[in-house]
Amino acid sequence: MYKLILVDDEQDVREGLLEQIAWQAHGFEVIATAENGREACDLVERHQPDVIVTDIQMPFMDGLQLAEWVRRHAPTAKIIILTGFDEFEYAQRAIKLHIDEYVLKPFSAGELVDVLLKVKSRIESEIADKENLQVLQDHYKRSLPLLRELFLISLISRRLPKAEIAEKSRLYDLDLSGKGYLVSVISIDRISGPWSGSAESSGTGSLRSSGNRQLQLFAVLNIAEEIVNRRGSGLVFMHQDQIVLLSVCHEEGSAAFTQNILNGLDEIRVSVEKHLKLTVTIGAGTESREAENIYISYESAYSALNYRFVLGNNRIILIDDVESGRAEMVRFDDLKEQGLIRTLKVGTSMELAELMDSLFADLEPAAVSIQDYQVYLLEILTVILKVTREAGIGIESVFGASSNPVAEVYRLNNLPEVKQWFTFACNTLIRLISSRRETGYSKLVEEAKTFMREHFRDSDLSIAKVCSHLHISAGYFSSIFKKEMKLTFVGYLMQLRMEEAKELLRSTDLKAFEIAEKTGFSDSNYFSYCFRKTFNMTPKEYRNSSRGG
Questions:
Q1: Tens digit of each residue's pLDDT (9 = 90 or more) over 78-119
Q2: ∠376-378-382 over CA atoms, to 5°?
Q3: What topology does CATH give the domain 456-546?
Q4: Which residues pair with 78 in a beta bridge?
Q5: Which of 12, 230, 248, 433 has its CB 3.0 to 4.6 Å from that of 178, i.e. a possible disulfide?
């Protein structure tokens, strides 16, 4: 059953259509009716209908204005316009608004039913398309290579949670369960000196032209994939104009694993030079024991590649050979910093626990010196102190009255204890920021209410004016106002104006149009309409009843 709203300013038309058409028999439920566009907007927001049948000429907001509003706020709803032969200019606007169907007046109930059934068929067709599992499966299969590549790129770009790696490996049919991981980066050496097209005009030699960079990359990628697949030694993909090889060790024995990779890399290097008449330099990174640290192996492979400026091209450079003796470095990068800041400002205790697990996981497997260890912790502490200061909160409120957080970092040398200390301080800061935010919300709403009570008599009072006075954005204000008041800005403004109108009707002899002006309405007819809508009686009827007339 599809939900439908009927909009027409003539009551007899609405009632006639309701009686003459067996709506439910045709698959529709008329959930509401409206006598103008403004009233219909409220109903659309509340009920989210599938179909809207509306007349064009109506007071306050006509049918096409309503259609324009619906296209912005309920784009999937179908719109049927009721129009006359003499409303051609309306029809032109209707085309631009992508009206689904129209019915020419005068029309019979049968004609409207025919149009409704056409719209119903269209809705069912769209639903069938969305639910067509085969279409989705085919699209997914076509997208799978790209999704795999994007996942592998994210794997070498940053630390991913272990659960996410396992889940996406399963989804993309990738075997990343292993005892060790090593990343290598293959870069095509630049051709020294200008190359003329005549010298390399045919055969594979033409790939040496510097203008064929993408063709060169794809040719190298094909050779690398063929060799890696034959040897069963990893995954190959392209990233930032370079070829990346991710090798996974499935057995214990780091030395044999690394040597097998180097043999495969050398086969790639020789094959590229032989078949493409190009040379490549390959950087091989450090081995990482955990899949979450693959990005560290990539960074070290990229660092190894940079040594070609010293060692020359057309070779394999192993980072452990050029930077022997260096421990795996622990890094507090921009991604971790932004994650911590976000969690402190708007996160939950559960999100904080996950973040702390991630931050301290980097310390556990790494051979970190005491200096690196302390620098890493001080970087975390600096972020916490920065957020504390920006929130206007005293350090003692977070770390305790007698606490010196910097000295505490140097004193603590047990990793679980340090983690617990940071977690406690961060949870305290999260609670304090949240409490201040809620207090700030209430204060802001009270300021808005005061301003509205002082200015609701101005006919041009708008949410924009209130937000300008408060120096905040309209979107932000709307959300907190509704959250605090359980009422929209427009609803509260109408409430103020209606209460003032009641008071003036009770205590004065002002006419309705005068009261409309004094309560912020520029249109006395609209004032009367809103008053009747709010109190179920006209202003005149209310004045008589309040005075016992």
A1: 999 988 756 556 666 666 677 888 888 888 999 999 999 999
A2: 120
A3: Arc Repressor Mutant, subunit A (1.10.10)
A4: 51
A5: 248
